[in-house]
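Most newcomers find our protein records easier to grasp once they have seen one. To make this concrete, we reproduce a full record directly below:

…
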Amino acid sequence: MDSSLIFSLNFGPKVLAFILEPNIALKIEGEEVLDVKGSISNKHGIRYLSNEYYFQKPFDLGKTLLQYTSSDKMIYFFEYELDKQIRKPLNQLLKAKKIDSVYHRELVKILEISWVSSMLWNIEIKKANKNQSQFLKYLFQTYDPFDKKYNNVPGSIRLIQIRRKALLISNNIMEGGRYDVGLWPERDNVFNFVPIYLQPMIAYEQMISYHDDKKYDYDYTKFIWENFQKLHPQHPGLPKLRKIFSELESANKK
């Protein structure tokens, strides 16, 4: 999901509804996100979803990260910058009652995942040296995209990190299992190293992104769609995916 799109959509106390899913009421500890109410305006937290904080800052810091030659220094640098740029400012806004606790909690999770993602753009997993591998293991254990605590982070944000952790497992840099349920074609077999409960979300996001970007491989999409509906006939996103595939199928016949 493009960070400028998130920024343009999210204003006021219903900001989380847009960050998560516009038309799905998700539950966070008993609170219905679409009905977040209160007198506190969350406009002060919006800038952290702008391109600067959401992508550019951690991307630039990722270049500096590569200057460190030990995993300990890389870890210290990452945590120092995340604390300085994100945690402390957001904690101050919360303390001053300029953002509410629900917004604060979920925004921190979103930014943790997005910062890890952006700061790693310059590290190629398959070519990572020993210190980089140790740093990657730390990040994916500490900010584990498989962890259910990140379930309310939008799949489009989380997906990059899920794929990276799956690559770490498949390349024996991290421990993990293989869960082949027959959902993925050969080119995406890395997703077989993702826990079963996350695989439907990945397939859903893959189909949505192919449709939105107008870039798709018909045979690939058909493979995922046919297996997805067989494996998950009660999935709430099935009607939307059925509509998307119908459109792709019609376009493919032209």
Remarks:
- The longest strand covers residues 27-28.
- Strands lie at 27-28, 31-32.
